[in-house]
Amino acid sequence: MTSVAAPRAFAEEGRRDTRQRRTLRECLAGSESFVSAQQLYDAIRARGDKIALATIYRTLQAMAEAGEVDTVRTAEGETLYRKCGTHHHHHLVCRSCGLTIEVDGPPVEQWASKAAKAHGFTEVEHIVELFGFCSTCSK
């Protein structure tokens, strides 16, 4: 899991804006849920594009490092990816359908700051992800 950072263009990072990166951006922009590299691979192949699974993994890692996508890790250890907003936020994720909602958490931010200060920590980062069942899946 990563904290959210403002996205940076690959050109600013010295990376080329390749066809594969553009394809992944398009696929991620159309998803309300976190998705796996394998799900992206299947979706891209289904629409007739050719891309290697290893390329998808490398590109997603670079996009995550650049702050262009958010990641969460499942209970099984699989990393999932999602294109999110640019402001700091947390995620509420449905365990069944994967619906993801970005949520602000002022009390979490205040608690993290207070806890860090009380123990003499600086430059503290935190990750808060909430997993449950959305109203549709709860029925």
Overall body shape: globular
The average pLDDT value, as a whole number, equals 83
CATH topology value? Arc Repressor Mutant, subunit A
Number of helical elements: 6
What name goes with the CATH superfamily?
A: Winged helix-like DNA-binding domain superfamily/Winged helix DNA-binding domain
Which CATH class? Mainly Alpha
Give the strand order, joined by hyphens, for the main sheet. 1-3-2
Strand and helix order: HHEHHEEEEHEH
Alpha-beta content class: alpha+beta
Q: In the residues, how many domains can be counted?
A: 1
Task: Please explain how this structure is put together.
- There is one protein chain.
- With 139 residues, this protein is an alpha+beta fold.
- The chain has helices spanning 10-13, 19-29, 37-46, 53-65, 106-118, 135-138; strands spanning 35-36, 70-73, 79-82, 90-94, 100-103, 129-132.
- The protein has a 3-stranded antiparallel sheet with strand order 1-3-2. Strands 5-4-6 form a 3-stranded mixed sheet, with no helix packed on it.
- Helix 3 (37-46) packs across helix 4.
- The protein is globular, with a radius of gyration of 17 Å.
- 15% of the residues are buried.
What's the short story on this structure?
With 139 residues, the protein is of the alpha+beta class.
